[in-house]
Amino acid sequence: MLKKLWQVIVAIVLALMAIMFSVSTVTNIGCTVKTDTLFVHDTTNLGACFAAFINENYQAAFLFSDPMADLSSSDVKIRWGSNTHTFSRKGYGEGPAIQFSDTLLLSIGVTYTVSLFSNLGGCEGNCIIPDTCQITHPSDNDTLRLGWNVLVSWNRAQNANFYYIYYGFGAYDSAGYWIEYISGNTFALDTTCTIPASFFNVPGAAYYQGGVYVYPYYGPIPQAGATGNMQGFVKGFLYAEGEEGWVYFYVGTPYKKLSVMEFPKPTKKDAHKAILSRLGLR
Q: What is the pLDDT of residues 41-94, one digit of tens each?
């Protein structure tokens, strides 16, 4: 009788141990990892970070890692509706990073799913390209008072979570001769931005001509320690960018107003660099 009771106790203990130390398989985008069900593990690859930018006519993505990911086994795919497309260009670039790019013609308001596949793991997320941004103040060709802060405002673009603002001005003396070009950039969650009066401080400058570009973005605002918006083994940041709004104006009374005023327009790559820099990736 005691022998049978002992056998039952041993069987129960062995069954409990099998349950406690069972191993389950969790499949992530681009990788398969085994996790002990007795513990909760952080499945993020701390040595890699992914960032992607999607707009209506240009798409770019970057996989930063140390060590570098394998180029031949790394790809970025984008899906919408019944369509699936793999980015057509990839190569090693600054970072160190693998860079992916394409020039698909996409649409505002559509949900796009972007996926990373690599030997280091992968991630996946969704985004929507925001509407175009329109600046409401100041007016085009306006003249603002030198020595005062410059307030810029714009409409709230649908599906935008934040805005990238670039401003640049040529400094001129009282006779209308160019001195130098100054520029800056910032980010905003709201629909206003203030350029401080102290920005316009070029020695000998009597007035400035230039303007502001505002880009609407879907995604997490870039800052140190920001939380990504993609799921998977690699930490990922997915951004969708709408078309920018812009305005040209004067700060200070110009020697002569121009019939056409232009200043260097920032490229999408300039915006990408600013975002990657704020995330600490460049």
A: 345 666 899 999 999 999 999 999 999 999 999 999 999 999 999 999 999 987
Q: pLDDT (tens digit, 9 = 90+) per residue, 261-276?
A: 667 788 888 999 999 9
Q: Where are the domains of the chain?
A: 45-128, 135-224+241-278
Assign a CATH topology to domain 45-128. Immunoglobulin-like (2.60.40)
Contact of 84 with 196, CB cutoff 8 Å: no
Tokens of 264: 């260097």
Q: Omega before 138 cis (within 30°)?
A: yes
Nearest C-alpha neighbor of 103 from the set 54, 166, 147: 54
Q: What is the mean pLDDT of residues 117-134?
A: 97
Q: Strands 97-102 and 89-93, how do they pair?
A: antiparallel
What is the rounded CA–CA span in Å between residue 187 and residue 162?
7
Q: What is the CATH number of domain 135-224+241-278?
A: 2.60.40
d(CA 257, CA 89): 45
Taken in order 276, 187, 214, 211, the sign of the CA dihedral is negative
Looking up tokens 């952080």, which residue turns up? 42
**The two domains 45-128 and 135-224+241-278 share their CATH topology (first three levels equal):** yes
Confirm whether pTM is higher than 0.85.
no
